[in-house]
Structure formats: structure tokens, C-alpha cells
Amino acid sequence: MNTNNTDKNQQVTSPWRMSVAPMLDWTDRHCRYLHRLLSRNALLYTEMVTTGALLHGDVPRHLRFHEQEHPLALQLGGSEPADLAQAARLGAQWGYDEINLNCGCPSERVQRGAFGACLMHEPTLVRDCVKAMVDVVDVPVTVKHRIGIDKDESYGFVRDFIGTVAEGGCNVFIVHARNAWLKGLSPKENREIPPLRYDVVAQLKRDFPQLTIAINGGIATDAVVQEQLQHVDGVMVGREAYHNPWWLSRWDELYFGAAPSTLSHVEVEEAMVRYMEQEAAKHGTGWYSIARHMLGLRHGMPGARRWRQVWSDHRLKQLSAREVFAIANTKP
């Protein structure tokens, strides 16, 4: 992966030009498989995996992925340099293309673990965490963070955070353009209530031209993506990519200068059914836990509501994925 994408050609081919955000309980390997069917080039991220889960838990369960998911980044949650180094080494050994450190999650559970957004208060610790990971892996180590904490909107806070963390060897920063309010707001409210300040991220790119700066937060249309790409190196999309995954089918052509996806909605659905059959045979995974990620596939299309109801009907769990596919695609 090339972390220096300052000219136009490098921007087009940069893996950070378009990505799908790490989203807890959403961007698991089944979700990522669907997204990869729609875009060959978008960078995909895992859900956040804590260092404790990897060092003391079921490593294959947390790190297993399908080869087709590349390019793929592993997002880690933690605050101990030695633990993060060990977890990063595991991620690299399993074949991830990037290791990302979460410095943006505002949930109280994450705060109790002393990581996520509260790490922005300790930039020298984050720098040391990054350096510990950079020293043991050959893939890029990146940081995802907010533009501020609570109601402090001073630009100097996030500028100094990036400046310090970059000393540890991080060349790529994914910036959620909202503050994280650590008290009084739920994670959902933290994605909606603190105001979006895209201008702050654009200023960061001007102040750190040598770094790759990608923007995240509230981005849901091509018009906004294209506007932001005039100011920063990349765009990370969250909820809209999940709820309207067909949007990804345009990304290769629009943002990577590549041939567009040629698969139809039904062909993508058929590919997911084959994947469900493989997962059932290999791991005993029920189709129901996979199908939940593709319920937005026909967003805005005629008949989408009935199609969605079929794929989410728990009464059909005993049927095979192919039988449910046939029901979903039979006109009432």
C-alpha cells in the first residue's frame, strides 16, 4: 500500500480514496463479502476488535475473513502499546492489508477500557501505541479519530494530536468530522448531534500535506463525496453504505477510474446465496445471519419492501437459502 498519495494519479489509486467505515455489529465478514461484490476497490474495515479479544479470546472467530475481501483493514481497540503490537502482529499474520487504531469511538464501554475517543486526551500514548505497531508489521498503521472531545472546538487540539501521533510513524489519518461528547450522549447521538465541521478536516490536510487525510461523518451522496475529494485524500462512508449498499456499485468507475460493476441486483443476490451455502457447509452458519446485511440491496426499487420482508422472515429459517431466494423473487 502506498501511503503517499499527493499527486492526482496516486489519489485515484490510493486505497483510502473510498472506504466503508468500521461499524460495530454491522461490518462483519458477511457484510464485507457483500460490499466486495459491489466494489472491487473500496477499502473495507472490520468491526473494532479489542486487544483483549485477540490476546485472550478466540482468534479465528475474530480474524477469519474471505480472500475476496481484500483490500481489508483490521481495526483494533486498545491503549497498551505492547498489547497493540501483539494484536497488530496477529492481524498482519492473518493477511490484513492495514492495521487501524480506534481513537474515535465515544461509547461508555470503550471509555471504561480507556481507549477509543478518550485516547485523544493522550496523544503521546497514541504515538507510542502507533510506534509499537509500526515496529512489528510491514503494513500501514493508521488512526481513526474525531476532531475534538466534548464541547472543546479548538482547532489546535486536533492539529496537535495529529502532529504528535505522526511522530510514531502514522501517515494516514481518518478523521470523523464531529467532536465526540464523552458524557451525556449515546453512540448513536454522537453520530448526529455534535455538528459536522468539514472545514476542520480540510484545514488539517492543508497543514499536513505530506499525510494522507480521509474524511468521515454524515456523507451520503456522490455530490458530497466529490466536493470533499477536492480538499482531502479520501472519503469514508458509514451508515449510508450499509443501508444502501448498491451505491458501492458506482464507486469503482467514479472514484478509482476502473470498469464499473456489471452485476445486476439479482446476480449479486445469487452470489450471496452461493456464499450462504458455502458458509453453512464450512461453518454451520445460518443464512439468516448473513441475509440481514443485504436487506438494503434493493433500496428504492419497486417490490423492495416485500423482498426485504421475505429475507428477514424468521419463520423461513428452516428453509435453505436457495428456497428463500426463490420465494423472494417470485411475484406475489
UniProtKB/TrEMBL annotation:
Keyword tRNA-binding set for record: yes
One Pfam family, short name: Dus
The protein's Enzyme Commission number: 1.3.1.91
Keywords: Flavoprotein, FMN, NADP, Nucleotide-binding, Oxidoreductase, RNA-binding, tRNA processing, tRNA-binding
List of residues binding FMN: 22-24, 75, 144, 176, 216-218, 238-239
Catalytic activity field: 5,6-dihydrouridine(20) in tRNA + NADP(+) = uridine(20) in tRNA + NADPH + H(+); 5,6-dihydrouridine(20) in tRNA + NAD(+) = uridine(20) in tRNA + NADH + H(+); 5,6-dihydrouridine(20a) in tRNA + NADP(+) = uridine(20a) in tRNA + NADPH + H(+); 5,6-dihydrouridine(20a) in tRNA + NAD(+) = uridine(20a) in tRNA + NADH + H(+)
GO terms for MF: flavin adenine dinucleotide binding; FMN binding; tRNA binding; tRNA-dihydrouridine20 synthase activity; tRNA-dihydrouridine20a synthase activity
InterPro entries given in the database record: Aldolase_TIM, DUS-like_FMN-bd, DUS_fam, DusA, tRNA_hU_synthase_CS
Active site residues of this protein: 105 (proton donor)
Named cofactor requirement(s): FMN
Protein origin, superkingdom: Bacteria
Chain positions of site Interacts with tRNA: 102, 188, 191, 305, 308
Stated role: Catalyzes the synthesis of 5,6-dihydrouridine (D), a modified base found in the D-loop of most tRNAs, via the reduction of the C5-C6 double bond in target uridines. Specifically modifies U20 and U20a in tRNAs.
NCBIfam families reported in the protein's UniProt record: PRK11815.1, yjbN
Family: Belongs to the Dus family. DusA subfamily. Belongs to the dus family.
Protein name, as recorded: tRNA-dihydrouridine(20/20a) synthase
Organism of this sequence: Comamonas terrigena
Lineage, opening ranks: Bacteria, Pseudomonadati, Pseudomonadota, Betaproteobacteria, Burkholderiales
